[in-house]
Amino acid sequence: MIKNVHFNVDIYKSCLKKVVRHVVKDYQQGLKRRKDKEIPFCELPEIFVENFAVRDDYETDYTIFSVCGIDIRVLDDELAEALKKLPERKRNTLLMYYFLEMTESEIANLQKITQSGVFRNRHHALETMKKILKEKQ
């Protein structure tokens, strides 16, 4: 009877080894399949990673400027402060040109001035902002 028990233990050990080998083999094959089909985040182009990101948006994080019935959110505090210091027409010219991507002729039609007037407003506004931002440094 002792031999019979010993024989069963050997069968159990053999069977257990087979199961463990198959589990390890399945695990390694699964890793290989994942490696072939998946790409680590560190290897993804930056634009894809940005699309996965979720950003909380709070009103205190930006300054809102309203132009042509459109709210423009400016996140950079220094830029927002410099824009606030500009006369309204020049500020609106910059916001329409750079944020709303309007052409000088479109801005001229809205402001009822010439295209050269829009160019001058934009140029002077940029010069003024440059001075304001340099003073803060």
Report on the structure:
- With 137 residues, the protein is mainly alpha-helical.
- Helices cover 68% and strands 7% of the residues.
- It has helices at residues 2-37, 46-52, 77-84, 88-99, 104-111, 115-136; strands spanning 63-67, 70-74.
- Strands 1-2 form a two-stranded antiparallel sheet.
- A hairpin with a 2-residue loop joins β1 and β2.
**Count of helical segments?**
6
Principal-axes shape call: rod-shaped
The helical percent reads 55-70%
Distance between the termini: 93 Å
The main sheet comes to: 2 strands, antiparallel
Unreliably modeled segments: none
As a percent range, the share of strand residues is: 5-15%
- Please give the order of strands in the largest beta sheet: 1-2
Order of helices and strands: HHEEHHHH
